Amino acid sequence: MAVIAVTGDIGAGKSTVSKILAEKLGCERLDADVVAKSLWLRDDVKAQAVNRWGEKILDTSGKILIPEIAKIIFNDETENKFCNSMLHPIVMAELERQSRENKNIVLEIPLLFEAGSSFDWINFVVYVTANFDVRAERCRVSRGWSIEELRRREKMLLPQSEKISMSDFVINNGGNISELEWEIDAIIINFH
């Protein structure tokens, strides 16, 4: 078995793929977004964010408002880079720590390549994609995003072709769940 990272396009179904993979392989699954969200509770991270963006990112009880940060970082490349440089190293260090303890694990890491470091502790990278219209509809239904919002966020990411070229496997999640499971089964034999 191995440490398997699942990444891919926004709205392509990374969560679905990582859950199915973990179930089929009988191993733990970790989500980088969950780790990242927990970091906003840390005093040092909160202090850096408030120092950078002011108290407008806090609610009345002093907690970070992640949607307010999203408005800032997905509208300004400099702010996006700042946020990524603040969070990515901590998130990746935590995922690596947990992977080394477990050895058999599926990691959902939406911004794996944007994190920009060497990940020699990851054995395989699975890239999940789907055509734009499918992804736009998923984002509209599950996140309430317009097509413009999806495009705006994708502009802050590395090009899809570059990320696919750095991946070991590509799964097209544009069909039904049976087709998706078939694609997952086709690559699982490589993980043993």
Task: Characterise this structure.
The protein is of the alpha/beta class. It is built from nine helices and five strands; from the N terminus they run βαβααααββαααβα. The protein has helices spanning 14-25, 32-39, 43-53, 66-73, 77-102, 132-143, 147-154, 160-165, 177-188; strands at residues 3-8, 28-31, 105-108, 124-129, 169-172. A five-stranded parallel β-sheet has the order 2-3-1-4-5, sandwiched between helices. α1 (14-25) packs across α9 (177-188) and α2 crosses α5 (77-102).
Oligomer class? single chain
Helix percent band? 40-55%
Calculate the mean pLDDT score and round it.
93
Radius of gyration: 17 Å
Strand content: 5-15%
Question: Layout of helices and strands, plus pairs?
Answer:
Layout: E1 3-8, H1 14-25, E2 28-31, H2 32-39, H3 43-53, H4 66-73, H5 77-102, E3 105-108, E4 124-129, H6 132-143, H7 147-154, H8 160-165, E5 169-172, H9 177-188
Helix pairs in contact: 1-9, 2-5
